[in-house]
Amino acid sequence: MPELPEVETVCRGLALKLLGRRLQHVEQRRANLRFPFPEGFAERLTGRRIESIRRRAKYIVIDLDDGNVLLVHLGMSGSMVVNEKRPGLLDRHDHVVFDIDNGTCVRFNDARRFGMMDLVPAASLNDHKLIRGLGLEPLDPAFDGLSLATMLKGRKTSVKLAIMDQRLVVGVGNIYASEALFRAGISPRRRAGTVQGERAQKLAAAIKQVLKDAIKAGGSSLRDYVQANGELGYFQHRWKVYDREGEACRICGGPIKRITQGARSTFYCPHDQR
What we know:
Shape: elongated
Order of helices and strands: HEHEEEEEEEHHHHEE
């Protein structure tokens, strides 16, 4: 599933092409994705001008000129790709097609259909069932060692699972949790509540930096993820531990190990992470 850097990359790519443009025509090609589309979805979007494109957690938030927001989640296999013109033949997984007033076209393609789209009044976005209860943005200035230590204090779960808890901090998925913990020198097995003081400061800084580095590289492409221009991300070539089981640690030379936490694979160096 695309994580924060991938969603942020898509938002920035869409913004480059779509800010200030109007949705000249919207084609909804099926009744539902993960959830049914809202009633009158295509008709309500047609003619609207795009005021801003931003991200909340792993959601794309598109502000429209009528006071509504188009809320999008890419699911596991979704993509939003901008084409210079509408293709003559659409893919069978192109479920929503947005024709823009300058002749460009955006296709929402989702083979597994775990993505979603909803239309929400901007004033009530924070009360939406998928948005309320989300934690702090890790790239927000308010996210630092002190705020992270406060979140983790008293928690008995592993620190890896804690920083992936969207109720605490959003967008730090499996890949970037492993990478950030390696950069901070913290074992993923460590009890979350013991990450205080200097450890919390190192981890907060590592989370911020690994996310920024991944965004700069266009995210990580595993199976389905592509940027808004259709290109792959490149951060997977810079992973230090993720998916490197048995390979040499780039610090100590010892083998990278894999364990399972919360039904997800965790990769780490047992020598350099404590």
